[in-house]
Specification:
mainly alpha
């Protein structure tokens, strides 16, 4: 499913009005904007979920890096959307996302990319950037 914007008829392929429409989408903003308080709260909620499953010492280190590296924070949120049903439901039930688009994004983009990341055939940066580009162009 492509994200259709009637104003996309311009030759540049990116209409300012379409960009304005997409700016209302919370997942779009999570992937394109600097981390804000709400995004950091989401990362902290994911941290709590992870810490309920694992006491591995690297968990603390990874989550501490989210403050220094947007890529790590986005990777955590993308991974959580992919494997944590409660978090995916939370995102999809928000009024500021299109649940059909998010569901397609999770199934067709995030899951296969996350598998490639875990298989070692995709770097963390490439995982985040692939998801970002694919969602922005949906």
């Amino acid at each position: 499913m492509l994200y259709y914007c009637p104003a996309m008829a311009c030759s540049s392929g990116t209409s300012p009005s379409c960009h304005v429409d997409r700016r209302k989408d919370r997942l779009y903003r999570l992937l394109t904007d600097p981390m804000d308080d709400e995004a950091q709260n989401m990362v902290n909620a994911v941290r709590t979920l992870v810490e309920n499953h694992s006491r591995h010492p690297d968990v603390k280190f990874v989550f501490e890096e989210t403050g220094n590296h947007y890529c790590v924070a986005r990777a955590i949120l993308l991974w959580a959307i992919c494997i944590e049903p409660e978090f995916a439901t939370y995102i999809m039930q928000r009024s500021d996302v299109d649940p059909a688009v998010v569901g397609e994004f999770i199934y067709n983009i995030v899951r296969p990319s996350a598998q490639m990341l875990m298989d070692g055939t995709m770097s963390l940066e490439f995982f985040v950037n692939t998801c970002l580009v694919e969602y922005v162009t949906m």
